[in-house]
Amino acid sequence: MNRSALTVPPPGTPEPRPHPDALIGEKLGPHYAKCFGCGPDHPTGLHLEAVSHDGLSVTAEFTVGDVHQGAPGLAHGGVLATAMDEALGMVVWLLRKPYVTGRLETDYLRPVPVGTTLHITTRCTGVVGRKAYLEAEARLDAPDGPVAVRGAALFIEVPVAHFTEHGDGVGGMTPDREVNP
Ligand SMILES: CCCCCCCC/C=C\CCCCCCCC(=O)SCCNC(=O)CCNC(=O)[C@H](O)C(C)(C)COP(=O)(O)OP(=O)(O)OC[C@H]1O[C@@H](n2cnc3c(N)ncnc32)[C@H](O)[C@@H]1OP(=O)(O)O
User: Fold this and answer.
1) Which of 93, 143, 94, 92 minimizes the C-alpha distance to 117?
2) Cβ-based neighbours of 149, under 8 Å, separated by 6 or more
3) 85-116: pLDDT as tens digits
């Protein structure tokens, strides 16, 4: 993968561990019902479903629908980047601190037809201060299918005020905008 140094942890960075209260080996619910990536109430969203694993890793599935096309019959590259971003974001939830994407890198290796189920694996490779280093891989139609997309990211820890000040004021904390940290 054509990976920048910005998404690789510095040499000697220790293996990151999930928060002791993180749910490991379980299905992860959506963090927000209207999220474009994981929200069940989003009409055309990705409806990503994920399971957490030890070693600060998540596997997620996303089935490409008609509403996700770029070229006829093929997934839009930006939609695929969104799927990677969302699955990467689910890994940092296991640290139980709020993070946002600072940098996202994607390599597109194979076209992804409508109807494909992408099997996405993401992993945190290191945490240094506010910076979490992450990588991802999406395979076609099976956990061991051909690799279609690779990704890497730098997520930055932010205070909850990031969402209350820059979001819609309540930061998703009213009953109809429930957030599952
Ligand atoms: C009761 C609990 C309630 C919880 C509430 C949670 C509610 C929300 C629910 C769920 C959220 C999850 C949603 C998941 C969705 C998927 C994730 C997304 O798509 S997130 C949206 C897209 N991303 C943004 O909108 C970020 C916009 N950018 C910013 O806000 C800032 O630029 C930010 C926060 C990223 C950094 O700004 P600074 O001022 O805080 O910090 P600085 O000093 O600039 O950076 C800190 C360090 O990071 C490096 N850095 C920052 N950006 C970088 C970049 N692009 N590339 C490389 N390094 C970067 C800097 O060089 C610096 O490094 P050095 O400490 O000096 O070593």
Assistant:
1) 143
2) 80, 83, 84, 106, 107, 108, 109, 112, 118, 136, 137, 138
3) 999 999 999 999 999 999 999 999 999 999 99
> At 42, which amino acid appears?
H
How remote is the CA of residue 100 from the centroid of ligand 1, in Å? 4
Over residues 6-28, the pLDDT tens digits come to 999 999 999 999 999 998 998 99
Domains of the chain: 22-177 (3.10.129.10)
Ligand 1 centroid to residue 155 C-alpha, Å? 6
Tell me, in angstroms, the distance from the centre of ligand 1 to residue 95's CA: 15
pTM confidence score: 0.93
Question: What ipTM goes with this model?
Answer: 0.93
DSSP bridge pairs for 149: 108, 138
| Predicted pLDDT of residue 1 | 61
106 SS3 class: strand
Q: From atom 10 of ligand 1, which residue's Cα is the shortest distance away?
A: 31
